[in-house]
Structure formats: structure tokens, C-alpha cells
Design brief:
With about 280 residues, the chain is of the alpha/beta class. The protein has eight helices and 13 strands.
Length: about 280
């Protein structure tokens, strides 16, 4: 494999500060295309930060309804580029039952930008078509504890600390313990990496986890959380109107503007319970 994709790339820049300039080295978040193939056929190409590519592919296929459990996947490996060379930007997925999925239904063969969301889908109805059971109604978290989660997620972002240019998705227990964090140039990719990790480790549904994402809580983020059985989805920024509607219809507690000791609950507020607050050491 020539020049494997890098999570971080270093480049020379000119920095201006206090009226003076100097030449320094700056770390940039990697962004390269990832082609996901199922049975040798391309189902999507997404711009992503290299790393956790198998989890990204598995999470994407799960959220799209191509696979429903870990056993549906026989093998995940890196594939070859069009010139036949080994490539770290191609992931090949082999299903346990060849031909069990009609990949021709995917009309998402265009390159999806890293901030994409529902890019390339023919209609919102196609995204909503997958039926999922309602999330765990008994999972709750205290409001004071909830406000402590963003700094925990931020402190666990290794690559963001070097580049300042990545989104993150993190899974928390009801007691505020951070169980998993993944970073990517795209919000939806970071969520796919988290869900893919859970799928490959046979931990779905995520009925006892809160999902926190940096940036805004868009429609596709809610759709992925709902597919994974996440009861509470929180975001640092604002949700969209369609995200709120899907969260209300699907039974997900959607929280936005979670920062600076403040947040807004847009759906199913019963899961935010003051009596559930615990003191973190």
C-alpha cells in the first residue's frame, strides 16, 4: 500500500500574531475519500478523516439497513484502487449471504462532502422507511451531570487537540462515564464510527448509552441514533426542524445547545431527571 492515509498532516504556514509574522509548522486534520464496496460494488464514497475505517463502513451499512447484526458481515478488509494497487481509501465488505442485499437501490454514488447529512438520497421517505423499535424509556440522566459531559468529550479528542478541525461523537453511561469516542472531519462519519464499533463488538442496541456529538444535531444524526437504539442524543449546537420531528416521532430525547451550563430539550424531556444527578469526582 503506497502512502497510507494519514489522520494528521503537517504543513508549513505563515502565522501572524501581535503584528509579527513567522514561519511555523501546523497540523491539519486529514481528509480523504473512502470508497465503501459491498460484494465488489460501490455503495458510497464519503470524505472522511482516515482511521477506524472498518467501523465507519460497518456503522454506515447498519444505519442504512444493509446489515442488522454483526453476523451479517463475513469480512471487512481494505481493497484495491482502480489501478490494482492496495488502497487505504477503499473498504471491501463481504456479506455472510452473498446477494442478500440489492445494492443497486443505493443512489448515493456521488461523493458526499464531510458536512453532508442526507446528501444523495432520493427522498427523505427513503431514510425514514426503516422501522426501528422505540429506544429504552427507562434510561435517564440528571441535568447537572449532563452539563459536565462536553468538557469530558473535548478532553478525549486527541486529534482535535492537535488540529482544531474535527468533530467528535462520544458514548456515555448514565453516570457520566465516557465509554467510547471517535473523531472525524464529518459529524455523521464520527457517529458511524461509534455505531460500527458497537456493531462489531456485538453491543447493539445502545439502550444504556447517551450519544453526544459536537456541532449540530441534524436529521441524519438522529436517524443513526434511532437505528442504534440510543435513548438520549445531545449536541453542542442546534438541531434542525426535521431532526426534532424525527426525534419526537421516534422516541429519542434530543438535546441541543449543550454548553456553558445550559441546554435545550426538544423531545421526550422525561429522560432528563434531576433525581438522577450524581457527583463526579
Amino acid at each position: 500500500m503506497r502512502h497510507p492515509p494519514q489522520r494528521v498532516k503537517t504543513t508549513g504556514v505563515v502565522e501572524w500574531a501581535d503584528g509579527r509574522d513567522r514561519e511555523v509548522l501546523d497540523d491539519l486534520a486529514g481528509e480523504e475519500p473512502l470508497e465503501i464496496r459491498v460484494g465488489g460494488r460501490v455503495v458510497t464514497i464519503t470524505m472522511r478523516t482516515p482511521g477506524d475505517d472498518f467501523e465507519l463502513a460497518a456503522g454506515f451499512l447498519y444505519a442504512e439497513g444493509v446489515v442488522n447484526r454483526c453476523d451479517d458481515i463475513a469480512r471487512i478488509s481494505y481493497g484495491r484502487a482502480s489501478d490494482g494497487s492496495a488502497s487505504g481509501n477503499v473498504v471491501e465488505v463481504t456479506l455472510e449471504r452473498e446477494g442478500s442485499v440489492d445494492v443497486s437501490v443505493f443512489e448515493r454514488h456521488v461523493v458526499a462532502s464531510s458536512s453532508c447529512g442526507v446528501c444523495g438520497r432520493t427522498s427523505i421517505a427513503a431514510v425514514c422507511a426503516r422501522e426501528t423499535p422505540p429506544p429504552n424509556p427507562h434510561f435517564k440522566i440528571g441535568p447537572r451531570l449532563l452539563t459536565q459531559l462536553p468538557p469530558l468529550l473535548r478532553s478525549a479528542q486527541r486529534i482535535f487537540g492537535r488540529t482544531g478541525g474535527l468533530h467528535a461523537a462520544g458514548l456515555f453511561d448514565a453516570d457520566g462515564t465516557l465509554r467510547l469516542v471517535r473523531e472525524d472531519i464529518g459529524r455523521h462519519n464520527a457517529v458511524d464510527k461509534v455505531i460500527g464499533d458497537a456493531l462489531l463488538h456485538r453491543q447493539l442496541p445502545l439502550a444504556e448509552r447517551l450519544l453526544l456529538v459536537s456541532g449540530r444535531g441534524g436529521f441524519e444524526i438522529v436517524q443513526k441514533a434511532l437505528a442504534a437504539g440510543v435513548p438520549i442524543l445531545a449536541s453542542i449546537s442546534a438541531p434542525s426542524s426535521l431532526a426534532v420531528q424525527l426525534a419526537r416521532d421516534g422516541g429519542v430525547t434530543l438535546i441541543g445547545f449543550l454548553r456553558d451550563q445550559r441546554f435545550v430539550v426538544y423531545s421526550h424531556p422525561n429522560r432528563v431527571a434531576p433525581g438522577r444527578d450524581v457527583t463526579r469526582s
